Amino acid sequence: MSNPHKTKKSDLPRWGMLIDLERCIGCHTCEIACKIENDVPLGIWRSWVKEIEKGTYPDVIRAFRPTLCNHCENPICVKVCPVGAAWQREDGIVAVDPHLCVGCRYCMSACPYEVRYIHPTKGIIDKCDFCSTRVDAGLQPSCVEACPAGARIFGNLNDVKSEVSKLVATKAVSTLKPDMGTGPRVYYIGLNTATMEIKREAKLVWEK
Amino acid sequence: MGKVVFDVQYQTSLAFLISYYFYCTGLSAGSFMISTLSYGFGMEKFKPASKMGVVAAVLLLLLAPQFLLMQVGWPIKSVWNHFVYFNPVSAMSYGAFLLMLYPMNSVVYGIFMFQGNLKMTKIFGLIGIPLALAVHGYTGWILALGVARDYWNTGLMPIVFLFSAMVSGISMMILLIMARDRFFTKEKVINHDLIDSLAKLLGWLLVVDLFLVFCDYSVLLYSKQEAQEVAHFMMFGKMSFWFVIVENLIGKVIPMCIVFIPGMRKSYFWLILASVMNMIGILAMRIVTVYGGQALPLM
User: Fold this and answer.
1) Are B3 and A63 within 8 A, CB to CB?
2) Is A27 touching B (CB cutoff 8 A)?
3) Into which CATH architecture does domain B16-294 fall?
4) Looking at the complex, does the CB of residue B90 fall below 8 Å from at least one CB of chain A?
5) Which pTM was predicted?
6) Which string of b and e fits A165-196 if b means at least 16 CB within 10 Å?
7) CATH number at residue A55
8) Which tens digit of pLDDT belongs to each residue from A177-186?
9) Could you say which of A157, B57, B177, B262 would form a disulfide bridge with B32 (CB–CB 3.0 to 4.6 Å)?
10) Which residues of A touch B14 (CB under 8 A)?
C-alpha cells in the first residue's frame, strides 16, 4: 500500500470510480438504474445510497454516501473463495463466476464493505461488477450514466489523461476502510465522519 | 456524530447451520481425542472409552457435513467444485479434503481397534490426531480469516475452537459411557475410575477455555472501535444472555465448579448435570461466535 495508485499491469486499463459526495443530491437514481440494468431482485442492492442526518435544527445537514463494490486491488473475497468463483479480471474488476460459485457465503462474511449478497432465486453470490458487459462494450456503468448530478466519474486509472485519474491526482480523495489493506478503487471526495457513520444495531433473528 | 436514516439491511451470511456444523465437528474431534489417549499415548485408564470415542467421532463426522450441504446454495455442485477448483489460499478449500480424510482415517483406526491390532491402531490413531486438530482447527481458521469481523479475526480463534471441541467432546463421552455402562453391559455398573478421570480432565480443559475467553475479550475491549462495540454487544448488549449466562455461566463456570468439588464429582447426578450444561453451553458458544460475531453491520 505504499503507492495506492500502483496497478499490476500498466498497459491494461484499470477501471476505477470517483464519487463526489459534495455533488451527490441523494436522489437514489443510481440505485434504480443499477437495479434495472442488472435485474437485481427486491430487498437487495448492488449499489445503494446511505443517508445520514447530522446536527440539530437549524444547523442541520443531510449527507449521502453511495456505496458499491470497491473492486479492491487485493480483494479479500478472491482470497477466501474456496472454489475460485470470486475472481479479479485483468482490468481490475472483481467479478463472480456463476458457473463456479456454490453459494457458501464465505465471501459475504469476509467482505469488509458488505457489498455481496446471495441471490434469492439463483442461490449464488452476486454483486456490483462495474457493469462489466457495458464497460466491455465501451459504455459507462449504468449508475454513472444515470447520475443527474454528475457525482460519479468512471474511467481508466492507468490513463493519466482520463478525468478520473486527473481528479484522483488533484483532489483530496479518500477510500473506505483503507486500514483493511484491500486497496479500494472507488474513491470519494468529501468522505467525513458523518458519511462514515455506522449504525451498529443488530436485529437478531429471534426478535420480532 | 450523525444519525443514519437510510441504509440497506445486510443479509446474514453464516448462521445456525454453520454453528451446528462446527458443533458436530467439535464433538467429533473431542471424542476422537479421548479414543486416542489410550491407544496412541498409552494412558491405560482411558482405554474403556476408546471404542465409544471412535464410533462417536465417525458418526458425528458423517452428520456434520450435512449441515454444510444444507447451508450452501448448490450442494452437489459444491462437493464437485471444492475438489476440482482448489484455492490454496482459502481455508475453506482445505475443509473438503479434511472432511474426507478424517472420517476415512477414523474408520480404519476403528476397524483395527475392534480387531485388537494394537500396532496399527496406534499408527492410525497418531495419524488421526493432526487430522482431528486440522478438521476442527480449520473451522476456527475459517472465522479467523474472515478478516472483516473483528470478533473473528484473532489468532486465538482456532485454539478457542479446539478447546471448546475437547470440552464438549469429553462431556458427551461422559454421558455416553455412563449410558453404555448402566444400560448396555451385563454388570450394569458404571466404570467409576474412568468417569472420574474424564471429569477431572474436563475441569482442567474448562479452566483453559475460560482463560482463552478472558484473553480474547480483554484484547477486544482495548482494541479498535468495532472490536469494542462487538465486545459490548456480547457482554452487555442483545447477545449477553447467550454469551454470559448460557455460554459461560451455565456452559463453563458451573460445570467447572461441579467437577472440581470432589463430593459433587462423585455424584452421578451432578456429573450428568455438568455434562449436559457444558454441551448446551458449547452449542451456545458456536451460535454466539458464528451468528453473534457478524450480527453488527460493518458499513
Assistant:
1) no
2) no
3) Up-down Bundle (1.20)
4) yes
5) 0.92
6) bebbeeeebebbbeebebbbbbbbbbbbebbb
7) 3.30.70.20
8) 999 999 999 9
9) B57
10) 105-106, 109
